[in-house]
Amino acid sequence: MRLTCRSEAWPIAGRFTIARGSKTEAHVLYIEVTDGLHTGRGEAVPYARYGETVEGALAALDAARPAIEAGQIPALTGAAANALDCALWDLRAKASGVPAWQTAGLHTFSPLKTAYTLSLDTPEAMGAQAAANARRPLLKLKIGGPDDLARVEAVRRNAPRTRLIVDANEGLTLDSLKALAPELQRLGVVLIEQPLKAGEDDALEGYKCPVPLCADESLHTRVELERCARLYDAVNIKLDKTGGLTEALALKQAAQGKGLRIMVGCMVATSLSMAPAMIVAQGADFVDLDGPLLLAKDREHGLKITGSMLEPPEPALWG
């Protein structure tokens, strides 16, 4: 087996802003594994919030190259593990002729309706974003400041029939959450994602929030699941956090066994990152795989996306 990997930068359509900052490009890790006849591909997004960089992921893969090319699975984590795991799933599908979704145990592989993310901005600007996307079935809006209620009100006013998710990206305190949550319930918000900082969210234990709470930064793999099940109503599964499709599928099953609702999310990336996540997202309560919709252009053979509807990937893309 032979491994190749590189960094890529994909321009974002405008600027993408969350509570932690802004960016105008999506920097991704791209890898290929080949057995000489078939090639599998994987993509991942190393995330600074978790101490990752593209350069660090490339170095980890290069250090693991002898093991990988000998057919062994090295002890990688995060984005580097995700890119390799997904590339191996793709290679297996290409070599065997059995689609990855069938190997994952699915009986069907259906189109999915994704949320569409509104970047953090002024209430007026976010209201304009909402008006331009008011026909989408689910909007996820980023919050993180003193004008949060005004932001949500502006979005609701301009998208009166759309379901709303609010994503704080660790930007609230318990007191601000308690003050904001009843207003979000009034505005029809169906989910609040990661209100408090990971590691400081034990304060949520025993709090009966009027809007369901979803763990994101607090949950990476099954290791954190027991703790999160005490604090949250739902979990956001992202392949870059789990270290690949293999662990993501196991995490989904374990989380469902604890009665948690499932969101399958993504970083801003191309369709190559979304394709394996679509397998995990089958039957999920919330799907947030809008990465390609936020880019100025997508990868060749990208997902067919009509409005908010994602079609299953073609084999030329992945799986």
From TrEMBL:
Q: Which SUPFAM superfamilies match?
A: Enolase C-terminal domain-like (SSF51604), Enolase N-terminal domain-like (SSF54826)
Q: Please provide, alphabetically and separated by semicolons, the GO molecular function terms listed in this UniProt record.
A: magnesium ion binding; racemase and epimerase activity, acting on amino acids and derivatives
Which sites are catalytic?
A: 142, 238
The domain of life for this entry's organism is Bacteria
The Enzyme Commission number assigned here is 5.1.1.-
Mandelate racemase/muconate lactonizing enzyme C-terminal domain residues are 123-214
Instruction: Name the cofactor(s) required for activity, per the record.
Output: Mg(2+)
- Which Pfam families does the record match to this protein? MR_MLE_C, MR_MLE_N
One Gene Ontology term of the biological-process aspect is:
amino acid catabolic process
Q: How is the cofactor bound?
A: Binds 1 Mg(2+) ion per subunit.
Give the enzyme class. isomerase
What's in the keyword line of the UniProt record?
Answer: Isomerase, Magnesium, Metal-binding
For binding Mg(2+), which residues are annotated in this chain's numbering? 167, 193, 216
Family in the record: Belongs to the mandelate racemase/muconate lactonizing enzyme family.
What is the official name of this protein in its record? Dipeptide epimerase
Q: Which organism does this sequence originate in?
A: Asticcacaulis excentricus (strain ATCC 15261 / DSM 4724 / KCTC 12464 / NCIMB 9791 / VKM B-1370 / CB 48)
Upper classification of the organism:
Bacteria, Pseudomonadati, Pseudomonadota, Alphaproteobacteria, Caulobacterales
